[in-house]
Design a protein that fits this description.
This protein is of the alpha/beta class and 227 residues long. The chain is 40% helix and 20% strand.
Length: 227
């Protein structure tokens, strides 16, 4: 696969012999504070063929948010219609508001050979497994220790001590789902963790089932072989 100076693919590509690559869905999940958001940002900067999945939501738009960039903001009736039509790859209701991933947008990207990044929890990952297992690459990010997780949560200075305790309690349950993922990494060093996820991406892009047209290419090689 051709890469630019930053190491990311340049986009959907025709490999030799007319082989093309189908894109993949990369899921990063972790307890709050383990570092998946920072890893995601670095991946999006360095991998030019990777884009963030834009969810739909029924919650009100915040002043700093842009429709179509942070979320696609819709009303409850439209959300219900999408769910009923099976138009969402995964969806959930959180604090009374609906969230979901539009199927058509993701499928268009995958068909064009582009990869899509998801920042979702284990429940959303389970739904993606049920609906699109062969396209899914799921990575769970663990903290190096609970003490370090607590330190990171406090260092963000975004939450009260009570909220931090609640996040720590929830983390124990979230981490119990690690075995449901394809890959697990311990995020002790951010740069090393980003490098590991990029290595996963490079390997997964070469999987047999993602190389469209490979069978015809191989048959063409065999046809040209001497008797």
């Amino acid at each position: 696969m051709a890469e630019t100076g930053g190491g990311g693919e340049t986009g959907p590509q025709a490999i030799q012999g007319g082989i093309k690559r189908r894109g993949l869905m990369l899921v990063l999940s972790s307890p709050s504070g383990a570092g998946k958001t920072t890893i995601s940002r670095e991946l999006l900067t360095r991998e030019t063929n990777l884009s963030l999945s834009i969810s739909v939501t029924t919650r009100p738009k915040r002043p700093s948010e842009r429709d179509g960039h942070d979320y696609r903001f819709i009303d409850q009736a439209e959300f219900n219609r999408l769910v009923a039509a099976g138009a969402l790859l995964e969806h959930a209701t959180v604090f009374g508001h609906g969230y979901g991933t539009p199927r058509a947008t993701v499928e268009q990207a995958l068909d064009a050979g582009r990869d899509v990044l998801f920042d979702i929890d284990w429940q959303g990952t389970q739904q993606l497994k049920e609906r699109a297992r062969t396209d899914l690459v799921a990575v769970f990010v663990l903290p190096p220790s609970m003490k370090e997780l607590e330190r990171r949560l406090h260092s963000r200075a975004q939450d009260s001590d009570e909220v931090v305790r609640a996040r720590m309690a929830k983390a124990a349950d979230e981490m119990s789902h690690y075995a449901e993922y394809d890959y697990v990494l311990v995020n002790a060093d951010m740069e090393e963790s980003v490098a590991k996820v990029r290595a996963i991406l490079r390997a997964e892009r070469l999987r047999l089932e993602r190389q469209v047209g490979l069978r015809d290419f191989v048959e063409g090689l065999r046809a040209c072989a001497p008797d």
